[in-house]
Amino acid sequence: MKKVTLSAHQKALSLNLDPNIYGTFSEIGAGQEVVRHFFRCGGASGTIAKAMSAYDMDVSDAIYGKEDNKRYVCESRLKKMLNREFELLGQRLSRKKHPTKTFFSFANTIATTKYNNENPGHGWMGIKFQIKANEEPSEIIIHLRLHDREARAQQECVGILGTNLMHASFNLHQSPKKIIHSLYDSLSKAQLEIDMVQMNGKLFKHFDNRLLSLFLVKNRMTEAVIFSPEGNSLQPSDILHKKNILAIRGSFRPVTKVNIDMIKTGYNLFKKEKKVLEKDLQVLFEITLNNLATKKREPINKNNNIENINVKAIKDQDFLDRVDVLCSIGQTVLISNYGRYYKLMNYFSRFTDKRMGIILGIMNLKDIFDQKYYDHLEGGILEGIGKMFNNDSKVYVYPYKECKNSELTNSKNIKISKKIKKIYDYYISNKRIIDIESYDQKVLSVFSHKVLHMIRNNKHGWEEMVPNYVDNLIKENNLFNFRKKKNK
Question: Is there a single domain that holds both residue 396 and residue 293?
Answer without folding.
Answer: yes
